[in-house]
Amino acid sequence: MKQTTNAILMIRPVAFRMNEQTAVNNYYQKVLDGLLPSTVNAKAQQEFDAFVEKLRAVGVDVTVIDDTLETDTPDSIFPNNWVSFHENGDVALYPMFAENRRQERREDILDTLEDKGFEISNIMDYTSAEEDGFFLEGTGSLLLDRANAKAYCALSPRADEELFIEFCEDFDYAPVIFEAFQTVDGERKLIYHTNVMMCLGETFAVICADCIDDKKERKMVLENLKADKKEVILITEAQVNNFAGNMLEVRGMDDKKYIVMSASAHQSLTPKQIAQLENHAEILSSSLDTIEACGGGSARCMMAEVFLPRS
Length: 311
Fold this sequence. Notes:
Layout: E1 7-12, H1 37-57, E2 61-66, E3 83-85, E4 90-93, H2 107-115, E5 122-125, H3 138-141, E6 142-145, E7 150-154, H4 161-171, E8 174-178, E9 181-184, E10 187-190, E11 198-200, E12 204-207, H5 215-227, E13 231-234, H6 237-241, E14 248-251, E15 257-262, H7 263-268, H8 271-278, E16 282-286, H9 289-295, E17 304-305
Parallel strand pairs: 1-2, 4-5, 7-8, 12-13, 15-16
Antiparallel strand pairs: 1-17, 3-4, 6-7, 9-10, 11-12, 14-15
Helix pairs in contact: 1-9
């Protein structure tokens, strides 16, 4: 199984704003005072378009789909939370914590991918768990080490343990389960998505081990990464606040590897960390300040990787 892909799905926002329904447990979101909603959305669109342009310029195959005004979906820019695409032709649909995010799941998006030549053979639908109040938000909650058949998950209100184990059984992944925390107003609170504090590349892992308060759990996670011969690059909680954990390794032209992140993530890294990352792939960064502030997500959240076979 490949760990990285050249094909990415991205959703262009039409009414992007801070989603009040997700702000209850995403402590990275902020209200940008004095900006009209239309201004916030226009800035997000500019950041989105510039980001897509940078990805396409290095040969990443980006499928861009416009969000629709028919639904109130301020977070549609983060499609990796509701869908994942797998090498065997499976598509997984995930249960979402915020009610207004559930409308992001659109069948026509899957039709568009099929029109582009991607083959979908089966849909694994976990969304009925929403009715019982259980959630698992795609590759925000799950970090897939596809090559080593392991899945990492930091449990939170948006990542239910039983659902995660069910996913691992369905997709043949060994579960690696832990809790990750951030400090909010002097209190330790669960981090809402695993991919905020950790990134898995083909030959490296970026992780804020300080977020894993339980020493046994921390040791277990690091041992799993080292057992799979990944270079572990440690980041601090301050760097997590700049979305340095929210990176994704992708492939461009001629299978060249890139580590994609936001400008704020890139700027927060030390020269040593940058050198460590550049041993594995070239860094590609883009300014996502408005998206990060209002959405509480960054570069990795905006890219749903498409591993589906092509006809």
